[in-house]
Amino acid sequence: MHKPQLEAIALEYGMQKTPRVVAKGQAELAMRILQEAKKQGVYVAEDPQLLALLSKLDVGDEITQDMYTAVAVILSWVYWLKGMQPGDEKMPREA
Fold first, then answer.
1. Which superfamily does 7-86 belong to?
2. Collapsing DSSP states into helix, strand and coil, what is residue 25?
3. How far apart are CA 64 and CA 87, in angstroms?
4. Which uninterrupted H or E stretch holds 74?
5. Three-state DSSP state, 32
6. Per-residue tens of pLDDT for the chain, all 95 residues
7. 20 Cβ partners below 8 Å, 6+ apart?
């Protein structure tokens, strides 16, 4: 039985209207994406179904309408974890 290959996809959401893919990779690159996310304090969701959807996109692509609900669930969890309210991501960060 072979172990599935590690895969990671990074989304960015904030100043633009729709989340977009900013990084994706497998194996070693996926590991580096995950390490950098953790180092930067970025929430990492492990959702195989969402990963399967997002893997259809290329870096720079905005998520498609059929992905809105799944991504919104993850974003709402992240907001809650960080004590944020919708719209906070558009505010300038304090130094």
1. secretion proteins EscU (3.40.1690.10)
2. strand
3. 21
4. helix 68-82
5. helix
6. 656 789 999 998 877 788 999 999 999 999 999 999 999 888 888 888 889 999 999 999 999 998 888 888 887 777 776 676 666 666 665 54
7. 11, 12, 13, 60, 61, 62, 63
